Each structure stands twice: as C-alpha cells, then as structure tokens.
Amino acid sequence: MMEFIALNMAPIMFASLVVFLLLGYPVAFSLAANGLLFFIIGVELAPLSNGSITLDWPLLNTLPSRFWGVLSNETLLAIPFFTFMGIVLERSGMAEDLLDTIGQLFGPVRGGLAYAVVIVGALLAATTGVVAASVIAMGLISLPIMLRYGYDRRVASGVIAASGTLAQIIPPSLVLIVLADQLGRSVGDMYTAAMVPGLVLTGLYMLYIFLTSIFRPAYVPALPPEARTLGSGVTSLLIAILFCVAVGYAAHRMLYESYGPDADILGGSIGVAVIYVVALLDKSLKLGLMSRLAQQVIIVLIPPLALIFLVLGTIFLGIATPTEGGAMGAVGALILAALKGRLNLGVVTQALAATTRLSAFVMFILLGARVFSLTFYGVNGHLWVEHLLVSLPGGEIGFLIVVSLLVFFLAFFLDFFELAFIIVPLLAPAAERLGIDLIWFGVILGVNMQTSFMHPPFGFALFYLRSVAPRSSYVDKVTGKRTDGVSTGQIYWGAVPFVIIQIVMVGLVIAFPQMVMHYKGKPVDTSNVTITLPQMPTLGGGLGQPGALQPGGLGQPGALQPGGLGQPPGLQPGTAPAAGTAPATNSLGQPGSLQPATPQPGALGQPPAALQPGTSSTP
Questions:
Q1: pLDDT tier for residue 54 given thresholds of 50, 70 and 90
Q2: Which residues are within 8 A (CB) of 486 and not within 5 positions of it... i.e. 6 or more apart?
C-alpha cells in the first residue's frame, strides 16, 4: 500500500488539492498546506519510490529564495498600477459619460443601446483592465435605461456581463500579465498578440446583437425620439472626423522629413488634439461650428482614447515596459479625474484600499503556489502531467482541444487567477515540448478563461451584475411607470449565448493562429543577406615570420626592447655579451643571458637573421 502511494504521489497530491478547493478553503492556504503536507509524506516515502521522489529536508531551505523571486518580480508591479487606474476611472464618471454619449449616437438604430454597451465595454477594458469595475458601472448606468425602453431582460443582462469580461482579453488585461509571467514570456508580446482576438470577439458580440435585431426586433428596440437628448448631427460628426484626418495628414507630410516613420503617430496626435480644442472652443464660446452630438462625442471619447494610447501605444512602440505603462496610466487616470472635478481623498483612499486587497490576494496565491510546486516537482508531478498530455492523440490540435475543454470545465469552480497559478505552470512544459508557441497558447487560455466569469452558476460577472440589478419591480424615476425587476434565472440564461460565442472564439484562435502570430512581425528574408566581416589588422610579416615585424611584438626578434624575454639589455638577437661584462638582469629579475654565446632563436622558432618572408636560411 505504501509503495503504491509512493509511486502515485503526483496524482494523489493533485486530487487532494481539488478536494481542498471544492471544500471551500482559500486557494492560497490550500496550495501551501497541500505542499507542506505532501512534502512530509514524500520525504518519509522516498525510499519506497524507486527514485521517483527526490524530496529531502534540506530542500525546504530553498523556500525563502523562491518567495523572494516572487516578491522581486517587477512584471507583477503592473497589476497594482492597472488596478488603481481602473478604479480611479470608474469613480471619475468616465463610464457614465461614455455610455450616455455612445447610446445617443447609436440610439436611432435597433439595438443601439446594446451596441453602445459593447463598445463602452471594449473602451473600459482598454483603460481599466478590471472586470468588476466594468460590469458594475455598466449595470448601474445602462441596465435601468435598457429596461426603461423595453429591452429583453435576458439580452440586456447578457450584453452587460459579456462586455465587462472583455477586460480579460483586451490589453491591459490583468490575466494577460499573469499568463505572461507564468509562461515566461514578454507581457508586451502577449498584449500585442491578444489585441486582434479581443477586437474580433467584440465584433462577434456586435454580430449577435445585429442578428437579434433582425430576427427578434422587439428584444432590442431603438430609442424613441424623445429620449434622444442630443438630437441628430451625425453629418457634423463625419465632417469633424474628415477635418481631423486632413489635419493629421498635413502634419504627417510636414514632419516626415524630420521624424521619418514616427511622423504617422505625431501627425495623428496633432489632428486629434486640434479637433478636441476646436470642440472645446465651440462648446464654450457657442460658435455653432458643429452639432451638440458631434461636440459631445469628441469631448467625451478623446480623453479615454488618449489614455489608451498613453498606456498601450507606448508599450507597443517599445517606449515603455508594461510596468511603466501602468504607472503612466495611473497618473493619467488621476489627471482625468481631477479635470472632471471627481478627484478627492475619498476616491484615492478607496482606490488604494481595493488595489492593496487585490495585490495581496495575488501575492498570497503566488507564494502558496511556490510551496505547492516545490513538492509537486519533487514527486515528478510535472513529468506525470507532461507525459499525460503529450501522449494525447491528435498532436498539437488534440492537445489544444483537450486543454481547452479542461480549462472550460475547471472554470466552473475556479476563477482566472487560480487557473493561471495552478493549471498553467503544469500545462506550459507539455505545450513547449510539442512545439506550440507559448504566446499563442497563452492567448487561447486567456480567451477560454473569460468563461470563468460567465459560467452559470459560479460566474463572477453574473454575481457582480446580480448585486446591482433590481430584484423586484420598481418605479422608474424618468417615466414614472412600474418596471419589473430582473430575476437570477434571466441573468443566467442571458449569459448562455455569450458563453457559446466565447467557445467559438477559442476555436477560431486555434484554427487561425495568424490572428496571434502577427506579434512576431514580418519574417526576415535571408536569401539576399550579405555578411561582411571587418578587416583585421595584420601582424607585420605574418605568423611565424621574422621579417618586418614591429618591435616588442609577440616573441618577435626585431629591435627588442631592453629587458625582453630572455634577452640582456641592449643586445640584438644573435650577438653575445662582451667578455668581462656581467650579465644584466631582465624585467623578470632573471640573469640577462644564461645561454651560451650562440644566436637566440627568433619568433616561433625562426632563425635570428633578418630574413624576408619567403626566403630560407642556409645552414
């Protein structure tokens, strides 16, 4: 019995961890407790394991250095920065302004409010990276408006919850930071690779709304005319956009000679800044240059877009690391909140408290995972997992399908941090052995982990929405009519179509890896590459030649300096000291000449005569 346990320690240890988690123990303490418990068992059973258990008591001395490796990881500094940025922006009222403005822009279209929620969800994802902040903000602001104008409760709930989870895959996502760290890859590469799948997923959500508006138009009605407070003015907005493009192109042409490829970004920035200043002047001075809708869209959209560029643009251009980009984003969020008059001590205190809680949560899980992995690797658990996964039929695709199904079902019980810290380190070696690009693998896992927020009945996004959605009927404060609340069943059923869309997206990323592989850039054509080696200076007459060599060279016989190797001062090779003179000492403190009065050999065994290269001496 003991031998059986010793030989199967890895699967028993993993099953024990799952039991601890299902019993509801905190993840960090479950990991650490399992690690220490099975370390003790493993040390005692090591003699019965036929060498499969390599644990010993001195191995515990490595824990402090493993903990320090976690605490000194600069990549993880991006997590508190982006968390702080997201919470400050959520408190600044940016989500409310975005939802109101984009809702007015798409209001005349069936499903306009749902389109607005998806677009704002993508913008919030690119500025906050925090799911809870996005779902709660949109649930508080959009859900009452959607219910007021007759949206189906399932569609409204599903759109809000799913749009909030875009923060999982659109940079600067926290889960992408953790995945990059666990996979040992660059966060910048992970962000670049995840951008296209994130935008495609946003498009799939909007496609679902479009199909709903065609086949179930009563589920997603357009805003009635009396609700369109900004009126019309789309033509004015299009003219303003064209003016912005023209200014940006002119600036690009003027700056190209001085700045080269960077003129694209500089020109675009100048165009956006000009149209923003024009909109502000038009609104404050009432010049009447553009419609109210155009004014509002420009004034509300440009600050968060500028913040997105400040964070992601600098990372993608290689100007800043993700940690530095997060720090700039936090400062930018404080500036935006101050400009809106929403920055006060209470907002900063709440943001710091929430950031500290999340950072401590992540750190404790990481420290527990270090204890668990020390024991798990000591019982060759990584080899057991690798052998189990590599031997799956189907090669790369079979491995990715099985892993995706495994993560999908584990997401019913674990959130994305737990999946990233427990499951990913076990899967990464097998993926690398199969030749799978780990950035591609990380993006697949990131899209799949979104479902952990949407799974009924344990999806956190559904819990966040449930906490702010009205449970019972209430009187609408605008229309004065009694409106039914939203049941938990309606929230769950509304999430199902979007979970299916997320699964489809996982399949698309597996089937079309080019969506991710663009992070590598264009392949270099080496067929026309010419390698030119630099010309090396010659050593006079060449190796072993006694000819025109510089004095003092490596063993050269030319005009050697006094005190050379084995030579008396002032003597040329091939001469003997005068009779009656005492031998001088050289630089090594040895007698200057202890050899008979015969010619000294030249460089590398050459005769002392001043021979030219290519000649020979006669005996």
A1: confident
A2: 143, 147, 153, 156, 157, 469, 470, 471
